[in-house]
Automatic annotation (TrEMBL):
Protein name: NPH3 domain-containing protein
UniProt organism field: Linum tenue
Superkingdom per UniProt: Eukaryota
UniProt cross-references to InterPro entries, sorted A to Z: NPH3/RPT2-like, NPH3_dom
NPH3 domain ranges (all copies): 30-290
UniProt entry keywords in alphabetical sequence: Ubl conjugation pathway
Family from the record: Belongs to the NPH3 family.
Length: 290
């Protein structure tokens, strides 16, 4: 009865049209919601269940869960010590979140990537990570590059960061988007996703341990035909060249094989013709186009 009463009061507070609709805004002025997210998880879980039974919309319920996860797991000093309790709580929060349907739209894109990162850190099972990956793949065109998963640089690690779990997860998310597309023909959303992937590659290909073959594999994660502009593709290739200045002619040609000079902007062309890391054939082709 106490749980139902608290839930009813919460519904009245949030559903009042005179009040803010966003839970994080309410939290700034209402003590009750801060008290709610400070509760032990089992008690919090029961209140969330009651809120849903009383008909509260997921667009209100989900942000409360996001706030709770942020306080207890993601951005809290409590998570400094990684233990089985943290992993268990994160698992329970994932079960509590609506990862399908309209409720999933109330979860910020960056929050999903943060959940993925924490899932990797805590060693959660592949099933949980797969659910989060699938969710991100469906709305990938709305993501921000800054929120993506980036591998930590470890001086003691002799392997390439391209084999890190973070990069592999990102690769699977983008590949999942490609596979879920109705066709592999260029589209506005597809072009945007390919551009986002190029930006991501630009951040990770400076790893000197990445092999040319692996770089090419990463480029192929999204169809080359989706790239309406090749400016960012050129920058990713240039970043790879800068970190691998000992490439031979054949390796340079392999790395650049997807670069279409006719899809470069004037600014990129001016930069490219002065780039002595590019194969001579490409430089001549760019000069001819200009």
């Amino acid at each position: 009865m106490c749980i139902e009463a608290l839930s009813f009061m919460a519904c009245m507070e949030i559903l009042d049209p005179e009040r803010c609709e966003r839970v994080n805004e309410i939290a700034e002025v209402d003590v009750w919601i801060n008290d709610l997210v400070a509760l032990p998880f089992e008690f919090f879980k029961r209140i969330i269940g009651s809120l849903r039974r009383q008909g509260m919309k997921e667009k209100y319920v989900t942000p409360i869960i996001v706030l709770y996860a942020s306080n207890w797991i993601l951005f809290s000093k409590r998570s400094a010590e990684i233990d089985s309790n943290s992993a268990s709580m994160l698992q329970s929060i994932l079960d509590l979140l609506a990862l399908r349907g309209r409720g999933s739209r109330a979860v910020p894109m960056g929050f999903y990537f943060t959940l993925l990162s924490k899932s990797i850190e805590l060693g959660l099972g592949n099933d949980n990570k797969a659910k989060l990956q699938d969710q991100r793949a469906t709305l990938l065109q709305f993501a921000q590059v800054e929120g993506y998963l980036y591998p930590e640089k470890r001086s003691s690690d002799s392997s390439s960061i391209s084999s890190s779990e973070e990069v592999i997860v990102m690769e699977e998310i983008f590949y999942g988007y490609v596979m879920s597309s109705a066709s592999h023909t260029p589209s506005t959303s597809g072009s945007l996703v390919a551009e986002l992937w190029n930006y991501y590659l630009s951040h990770i290909v400076s790893d000197p341990k990445m092999e040319p073959k692996r770089f090419t594999e990463l480029l192929e994660t999204t169809p080359i035909s989706w790239r309406q502009s090749h400016d960012q593709l050129y920058r990713a290739i240039n970043s790879f060249h800068q970190a691998h200045q000992d490439l031979n002619h054949d390796e340079k040609a392999a790395v650049c094989k997807y670069l279409n000079c006719q899809k470069l902007s004037q600014e990129a062309c001016v930069e490219a013709v002065q780039n002595d890391m590019l194969p001579l054939r490409l430089i001549v082709e760019i000069l001819f186009i200009q």
